[in-house]
Design brief:
Oligomer: heterodimer
Protein name (chain A): Protein SIP5
Family (chain A): Belongs to the SIP5 family.
Largest sheet of chain B: 4 strands, antiparallel
Radius of gyration of chain A: 29 Å
Shape of chain A: elongated
Number of strands of chain B: 4
Distance between the termini of chain B: 28 Å
Organism (chain A): Ogataea haglerorum
Strand order of the largest sheet of chain B: 1-2-3-4
Structural class of chain B: alpha+beta
Number of domains of chain B: 1
Largest interface: A-B, 28 and 19 residues
Distance between the termini of chain A: 43 Å
Radius of gyration of chain B: 17 Å
Strand content of chain A: under 5%
Order of helices and strands of chain B: HHEEEEHHH
Strand order of the largest sheet of chain A: 6-5-7-8
Family (chain B): Belongs to the ubiquitin-conjugating enzyme family.
GO cellular component, one term (chain A): cytoplasm
Structural class of chain A: mainly alpha
CATH architecture of chain B: Roll
Helix content of chain B: 25-40%
Number of strands of chain A: 8
Number of helices of chain A: 18
Chain lengths: 500, 159
């Protein structure tokens, strides 16, 4: 109660001093490394938080690079990967959802609704559990208790920052939008009415969250069902678990070491048709606004401007290179100004451009069909778009398929951690068991022998006589200790390998 | 209804845009099934399911509770019988053994579908995948007697 960690606002560098005191005696080098690792982890978490802020300057085809906030949890997908995929038009951007939609709305009605939308769902202060730490009433607090508090304080700090940044982004958006609306001044990243109407005129419902989005949603690779990006990033593998069907192998060993090996982590099934290894494809609408295109303010439906030359294979990238570059760098530099971090995606630009050439070539087929007379009506996913209907089921490895594992690559690490944790726990339990036997020895000699024998029956049956037992227990404990350290080492190596 | 769709009614609970959409869907009427959200917690529903005709549960009105966890719809809703019921796949605590509530849950399934599945489970008990072992044994060894007990329980508890 008295220890309100939120107010202390410790600096990251000082945060693990307690830990260091504990470990500094013999592992100075180690603790330094650990400190560095912790700092790196925090940096990554901060970046992750910043990546989840919706900023209106960061837009692609009328959508954004961060989710609207329908789900308050489960946002631990790889934000850098998803942002890049959206910029490359390989995944639908995060569009702002409409709670309801009626085809009979006039353009004016639709527009007035669209113009009232926020960038992000209303945020409230994070309700972190204010549970007391078990060590709160002790005179000496353990290092792990300090650590837990640090962690909590950091989490609260992150949540406060994210709320603040989102609020800033929001007020900036509404200010710029109303200034644009009044006609005093225009902002290139405030979307034109034409763009808004083009996007939302034929809005469709995401079958998972029941909210309405522009019809260019992602499509499941297997059964071609629409799914919005916000729902898609929520999907991830379940935590590592023992195989479900106990019935299939009832004689499966109960030995903990083997249990660890049996832990599995299965790819996500398609929510619609249950096909394993879920993935989506995305065909971008022919809009090219925002990052990698022209400013969304300048989007209009005058056919000559839009279809300069529908027959060129470069169908999608009609705005001049120079203009695109300018708007791209504009968006890039602006995007991180709030956070104070430098724009880190310098690679993105070149990559994006090579990609765009490719993509527009790939898409030229479907583009052409859309480029016919009436131009900019994005086709409904279930509708008559021949390109979409013709597309059958695609394998998970097909080019253009974005799988769940691609944006949640940490499952391998998680499985590994769970396995080594379980193995370590069982080894520790065995060691504990063995040591308790030593104390037992004097008074309950015989029972201990039998217990010992039964638990180590595998290799110890030859060790019948009492004299040898004590030494063999010690040997075994040493063995266990060796095993533990080997496990740790193995884990460390694998971690390094995964990090590459 | 307007209270439900009004997001300000969620004061105190975290902002979840779709909650209203989901709640509206849960309330979508199905014959023989009702689901009413609690006033103070929109994630929590009082559910009733009518015993399907032709089953030993016919004529009974079974109360259940349904809860949409924070991870919904990525995780299945939690459903439990409040009314006692004699059924091989429903235990004494009202827990239900149904694949779509566990391994076969999909975010594209709606609560409506789940409630319909539970109603279907009442029509076709599956003693080969039991949760209440004794009931399942009885069902397999003496089905007539089991059905009789189920009818008695329905009259006793589910009126």
């Amino acid at each position: 109660m008295g220890n309100a960690p939120a107010k202390e606002a410790r600096s990251p560098s000082g945060s693990f001093s307690k830990d260091n005191v504990v470990s500094s005696k013999s592992f100075v080098g180690l603790s330094k490394r650990k400190k560095e690792r912790d700092r790196e982890k925090r940096r990554q978490k901060e970046q992750h938080m910043l990546d989840l802020i919706v900023r209106y300057q960061e837009n692609v085809d009328g959508g954004y690079l961060a989710p609207y906030g329908n789900y308050k949890d489960g946002l631990n997908y790889k934000t850098d990967v998803v942002r890049e995929l959206i910029i490359e038009r390989k995944l639908a951007p995060f569009y702002t959802p409409l709670e309801d939609f009626d085809e009979s709305w006039t353009d004016g009605e639709l527009l007035s609704r669209l113009k009232r939308l926020n960038l992000h769902a209303p945020t409230t202060e994070l309700l972190l559990d204010e549970d007391e730490d078990p060590d709160d009433h002790k005179i000496h607090q353990s290092a792990s208790s300090m650590r837990r508090k640090e962690h909590k304080a950091f989490k609260r700090h992150l949540s406060e920052m994210s709320i603040k940044f989102q609020r800033d982004a929001e007020s900036r958006f509404s200010r710029d939008r109303s200034v644009s609306e009044s006609g005093i001044k225009t902002y290139p990243n405030i979307p034109s009415d034409d763009l808004l109407l083009t996007l939302y005129r034929n809005a469709i419902e995401c079958p998972i969250c029941f909210l309405y989005y522009p019809p260019n949603l992602n499509l499941s690779r297997c059964c071609v069902q629409p799914i919005c990006t916000e729902c898609f990033v929520q999907l991830k593998r379940l935590d590592p678990h023992p195989p479900h069907d106990e019935g299939v192998a009832p004689n499966a060993s109960t030995e903990p070491e083997k249990l660890a090996d049996e832990l599995i982590s299965e790819p996500v099934n398609c929510p619609f048709c249950a096909m394993s290894d879920f993935g989506v494809t995305y065909s971008p609408p022919n809009l090219w606004t925002g990052i990698g295109g022209r400013p969304p303010r300048d989007f209009n439906l005058i056919p000559q401007v839009i279809h300069e030359d529908p027959n060129t294979p470069q169908g999608g990238s009609r705005s001049s290179d120079c203009q695109r570059k300018a708007s791209l760098s504009y968006a890039m530099t602006k995007s991180h100004s709030a956070s104070g971090t430098p724009p880190k995606k310098s690679t993105c630009l070149s990559e994006y451009r090579t990609n765009q050439g490719q993509k527009s070539f790939e898409d030229s087929g479907s583009m052409k069909s859309k480029n016919s007379d009436d131009g900019f009506h994005i086709k409904n996913a279930e509708g008559s778009d021949p390109a979409r209907r013709r597309r059958g089921s695609l394998p998970a490895k097909a080019p253009g398929v974005i799988t769940v594992d691609l944006i949640h690559p940490d499952w391998e690490q998680k499985l590994l951690n769970a396995k080594s944790k379980l193995a370590r726990r069982s080894a520790a339990a065995t060691a504990l068991h063995a040591s308790s036997l030593i104390y037992d020895r004097d008074d309950s000699h015989h029972t201990y022998t039998s217990r010992f024998e039964s638990s180590y029956r595998r290799s110890d049956s030859s060790n019948g006589n009492d004299h040898n037992n004590h030494t063999s227990i010690e040997e075994r404990m040493i063995e266990e200790a060796l095993k533990l350290s080997l496990l740790d080492e193995e884990e460390r190596k694998l971690k390094e390998r995964l990090k590459r | 209804m307007s209270m439900i769709l009004n997001r300000s009614g969620l004061s105190g609970s975290p902002p979840i845009g779709q909650l209203s959409a989901w709640v509206a869907r849960v309330r979508y009427p199905v014959p023989g099934i009702t689901a009413v959200p609690h006033e103070d917690n929109l994630r929590y529903f009082n559910v009733t399911i009518d015993g399907p005709s032709g089953s030993p549960y016919e004529g009974g009105k079974f109360k259940l509770e349904l809860f949409l966890p924070d991870d919904y719809p990525m995780l299945a809703p939690k459903v439990r019988f409040l009314t006692r019921i004699y059924h091989p796949n429903i235990d004494r605590l009202g827990r239900i053994c149904l694949d779509v509530l566990k391994a076969n849950w999909s975010p594209a399934l709606q609560v409506r579908t789940i409630l319909l599945s539970i109603q279907a489970l009442l029509s076709s008990p599956n003693p080969d995948d039991p949760l209440a072992n004794e009931v399942a044994e009885e069902w397999k060894s003496n089905e007539q007697n089991a059905i009789k007990t189920a009818k008695e329980w329905t009259e006793r508890f589910a009126q």
